[in-house]
Write a structure and sequence with these properties.
single chain, mainly beta, Jelly Rolls, 6-stranded antiparallel beta sheet, 3-stranded antiparallel beta sheet, 9 strands, about 0% helix
Length: about 100
C-alpha cells in the first residue's frame, strides 16, 4: 500500500512544445503497478503539446478551468469533470482560467 501527498513526488517540468506544465507520477511501475497515475498542474495560460498515442486517458479535473482539443474543436471543462480520450485520438489540454489547473 502507498499513501502519499502528491506534492511529495518529484515534479517533472515539460518543456517546449508544452508551456507552464508539470507532472508527477504518483503510482507507477516503481510501485509494482500495471498502470501509471499522474497528477498534472498547468499554470494559467499553460498547455500540453498536441499529440496522440496508442493508449487511452481517463482524466479527473480536480481544480481550475481549461479546454481540451477534441476532433479539431475545443471543449471546456472544470472541477469535477471527467475526460476520456480514446487511443490514437489527437488531443491537447490548456488552462483557460486564472487559477492553477490540477488534473489526475
Amino acid at each position: 500500500m502507498k499513501v502519499i501527498n502528491y506534492l511529495d513526488e518529484e515534479a517533472k517540468v515539460f518543456g517546449s512544445p508544452a508551456k507552464d506544465t508539470v507532472g508527477r507520477v504518483v503510482v507507477g511501475k516503481a510501485d509494482g503497478a500495471s498502470f501509471c497515475m499522474r497528477v498534472f498542474e498547468l499554470m494559467p495560460g499553460g498547455y500540453t503539446p498536441c499529440h496522440s498515442h496508442p493508449w487511452e486517458h481517463q482524466q479527473f479535473i480536480h481544480a481550475g478551468r481549461g479546454s481540451v482539443l477534441r476532433e479539431s474543436r475545443w471543449v471546456d471543462f472544470g472541477p469535477g469533470d471527467v475526460l476520456y480520450i480514446p487511443p490514437n485520438e489527437e488531443h491537447q489540454l490548456k488552462n483557460t482560467g486564472e487559477e492553477l489547473l490540477v488534473l489526475l
